[in-house]
Amino acid sequence: MIRLILVDDHPVVRHGIRGMLEAEPDLTVVGEASSGPEGVALAAELRPDIVLMDLRMPGGDGVEATARIVATMPGVRVMVLTTYESDRDILRAIEAGAGGYLLKDASPAELAEGVRAAARGETVLAPSVASTLVRQVRSPAPPTLSAREAEVLRLVARGLTNADIGRELFIAEATVKTHLLRAFAKLDVADRTAAVTRAMSHGLL
């Protein structure tokens, strides 16, 4: 028997999910909570196999609760069940350690099978969620510059030499070169002009 707890701030939603799951002979809901902190406490008390976790709840964030459960309760798996599928929500939940991410429009059969798969240790993702993660992997994050690297490149864009930049910022010329080389590496370029052009294209200057 797979034991679950439900964490959702809407009692009607919890009632509906409980009804769907308990119609299955191998699934049982052993507890309910209405916020992230309540879910963490209940998971610690009951040690279920699966926690079905909503993300956005007035009483406490589901992502933070997921991270706490995963970090402190080995063997308890968290599966997100939510209406939200923004890139930020998905990435935060997966990074927190969620073993699955399903949407509330899943059919009863999809939900039950997702719970069983999560209990077996598999990762369960709604198709739209999987597509988002693939897109994120294929689209590398834009480069970032430190405040000083950006400052140096802004002065390069104004036509200043390394010596001029050193005098402007009250740093050694060798330090200016160090900042430039780090910026080149982050921007994947080999010269000053390309560095300024790429930094501007990414909105870094």
UniProtKB/TrEMBL annotation:
It holds the Pfam family GerE. The modification 4-aspartylphosphate is found at residue 54. Keywords: DNA-binding, Phosphoprotein, Transcription, Transcription regulation. It comes from the Bacteria. Residues 138-203 form the HTH luxR-type domain. InterPro entries: CheY-like_superfamily, NreC/VraR/RcsB-like_REC, Sig_transdc_resp-reg_C-effctor, Sig_transdc_resp-reg_receiver, Tscrpt_reg_LuxR_C, WalR-like. SUPFAM superfamilies: C-terminal effector domain of the bipartite response regulators, CheY-like. Residues 3-119 form the Response regulatory domain. The keyword Transferase does not apply. GO terms for biological process: phosphorelay signal transduction system; regulation of DNA-templated transcription. GO terms for molecular function: DNA binding. SMART domains: HTH_LUXR, REC. PANTHER family: TRANSCRIPTIONAL REGULATORY PROTEIN NARL-RELATED, TWO-COMPONENT RESPONSE REGULATOR. This is DNA-binding response regulator.
